[in-house]
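Severity: low
Component: inverse-folding endpoint
Summary: output formatting inconsistent between runs
Steps to reproduce: submit the following structure tokens with default settings.
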């Protein structure tokens, strides 16, 4: 039985559920997310799409944190009284833009057609990946 929420305008809105994929701290504080498939996605999303999303995000965050360019940028910023950050996009900010573009692409091509939406982990303080599940009213 499917239930819908009634919004302020009297219209019916889909029921929403959120699933969270937590950070994996087993290897320290490096940004890495757990690879365990959430049971709430079973029957809604294929496991290979979930695995691809998590492994790609983990790799992109690893690349953002371990670049020698980031170390050099930090040294130059310190020497320039941090005025360097006014002139250039840092490696980290470029990486975060790439990650946001990747998540947007995944949402548009794979996740949204299945009634799911991935929230960029940066919006949750890099603590979790939030997956929003929208249940449409099947009685229409």
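Observed output (run 2 of 3):
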């Amino acid at each position: 039985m499917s239930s819908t929420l009634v919004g302020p305008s009297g219209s019916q809105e889909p029921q929403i559920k959120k699933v969270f994929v937590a950070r994996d701290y087993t290897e320290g504080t490096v940004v890495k997310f757990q690879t365990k498939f959430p049971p709430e996605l079973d029957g809604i999303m294929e496991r290979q799409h979930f695995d691809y999303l998590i492994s790609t995000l983990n790799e992109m965050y690893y690349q953002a944190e371990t670049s020698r360019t980031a170390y050099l940028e930090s040294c130059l910023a310190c020497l320039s009284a941090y005025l360097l950050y006014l002139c250039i996009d840092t490696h980290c900010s470029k990486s975060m833009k790439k990650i946001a573009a990747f998540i947007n692409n995944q949402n548009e091509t794979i996740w949204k057609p299945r009634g799911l939406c991935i929230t960029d982990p940066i919006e949750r303080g890099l603590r979790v990946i939030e997956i929003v599940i929208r249940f449409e009213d099947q009685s229409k």
